[in-house]
């Protein structure tokens, strides 16, 4: 059962990212579960959420302490992710143009730049959650078509197109930097 933990900051769309990923997995016939965790609810505070995807019903109901994949909405979230624990062979998916971590597979995508390119900027901040969705769908082998359909369900009408385009670009450009496994 793939288990992910996503680390970001309040206001980055971490919970929305997790929910969209779970819905794409369900649309492909998998069982999925999200489990958000955040302390003081304020913009900028550290936020994390777990996502589990399985071909069997998921009976575990807890935060992820040993995830297969750690997702960093920005590289500076690494200390938080490591402090919460990870599987010794965990892979990382990081919103960064370049990032490496000895002993781990690291997938990188410049999700913030993709968000800016597709005008996914609110309050002066790029919303990298949708490009990160695209990267995660590629890493997990989930289809572009189901991903685009779930984005359309989330933001129908004119908002759908730039979000779909950003997710597709990230899907196509996420790259593996390492080979620990």
Report on this model:
The protein has 181 residues and is α/β, with parallel strands linked by helices. The protein has one domain: Pyruvate-ferredoxin oxidoreductase, PFOR, domain III (Pyruvate-ferredoxin Oxidoreductase, domain 3, 3-Layer(aba) Sandwich). It is built from six helices and nine strands, in the order E-H-E-E-E-H-E-E-H-E-E-H-H-H-E. The strands form two sheets. It has a seven-stranded mixed sheet with strand order 2-3-1-4-5-6-9. Helix 3 crosses helix 4. The radius of gyration is 15 Å and the shape is globular. 45% of the residues are buried. The model has no long low-confidence stretch (mean pLDDT 91).
From the structure above, extract its key features.
181 residues; alpha/beta; Pyruvate-ferredoxin Oxidoreductase, domain 3; 6 helices; globular
